[in-house]
């Protein structure tokens, strides 16, 4: 009887799976007749998510894109199903231009469903909410404010190198770079500077990024489940900071000021209807900024050390530029805006690093209406994806794309819409200048003190969803000869 039941169950499951598969592919085939872009939706439900993510885990996120472009050439667009959504991937400078210049006309920002769960104050990811955040940011990211941050960043960098690097023979770079960018963010967003308090805040962040861009399966142990738990912990910590700041601002006890950081700014700014933001909304906005600005910039700083260790002639060039700046300073004098303007070669090097290892691989949009692109139909509601690698590693945009060549950024630099580590159009990263400053301040403080050698010469880079050296980039440190002499 039991055997009979098991056979029946097996037959039922087999028929269901095969029917689902056929139904799914029938739908795809019908789409083809309507001149949808070429491509396949893969498996029912999960689609091609596994291929999309596993090429990143193996260190070749561009493979997912380039395999399909080769298959459907000369088309520079293909359809797929990733992160539970039917998606059109638009490649090349033309794809980037189309998506970046049609914001709110044909497309709008969209983040995977997992993000909404991690930011439940809702709408934190919607276009409306993003506009709200963008309105708040200019004050915090305007040129005068950014200029004020340079000496603060330099002070933190000096303390960071003194605490984490100096006197050590070997270090693991990735966790240190995370400490550095997080410390700066805590200081500038929340006025938190005590390294112990910063470390307490930083801990749950490790699980956040992986939870955000992933398959939203909320089961114990999945990255998504860990991401939700981590976001709840950080939100709780942020709410406590917000409550205390409210008291300090109201008390007029001199402990807080209206201009001291982005938190005070958010607490004291009202919208068009005179409404203040709720505590949860503020916590989510700050959480969003910490995520957007922390993991991305720390990935960039990690790859600075990696590439400078691998390319001695590039290290020499950066070092020469930075030591000239350092030598012109009085003892104890901090970096300023003029110094940053002199770091031209260093910034070209950082740009080339972000071309080869873009901290964000790309971004999603949603079609807000049916439209045609490159002769293909894109149905309303489908998701769209732009990929930095589709231009960064394309020989038509960057000849000999695998070659490290900072001179690509001299003069007028790369052609429009080809170099996109910060995106483009109205959704372009609002933290671009802030990130430029913290990366340059990091480079200055690093090359002034050390050169390094990779302990694992062939360490793999994995992308999950940001690129990181698999073992955290362990390096052997050698004190910089000129600093030792000085
Ligand atoms: C190397 C560092 C960074 C890189 C490579 C980077 C890259 C990006 C990219 C590619 C986007 C998405 C654009 C799109 O969807 O088309 C983005 C969005 C964003 N970034 Fe950055 N970012 C960095 C640092 C920062 C920093 C330091 C901050 C904050 C201070 C920040 C704040 C944001 C915000 C708020 C958004 C969302 C904008 C919106 O939804 O309109 N980013 N970033």
UniProtKB/TrEMBL annotation:
Its cofactor is heme. One of its GO terms (molecular function) is heme binding. Keywords: Glycoprotein, Heme, Iron, Membrane, Metal-binding, Monooxygenase, Oxidoreductase, Signal-anchor, Transmembrane, Transmembrane helix. SUPFAM superfamilies: Cytochrome P450 (SSF48264). It is found in: Membrane. The keyword Metal-binding applies. Pfam families: p450. Coiled coil: none annotated. Its EC number is 1.14.14.126. It is a single-pass type II membrane protein. GO terms for biological process: saponin biosynthetic process; sterol metabolic process; triterpenoid biosynthetic process. Heme binds at residue 429. InterPro entries: Cyt_P450 (IPR001128), Cyt_P450_CS (IPR017972), Cyt_P450_E_grp-I (IPR002401), Cyt_P450_sf (IPR036396). It is an enzyme of class 1 (oxidoreductase). It comes from the Eukaryota. Belongs to the cytochrome P450 family. This is beta-amyrin 28-monooxygenase. The lineage of its organism: Eukaryota, Viridiplantae, Streptophyta, Embryophyta, Tracheophyta.
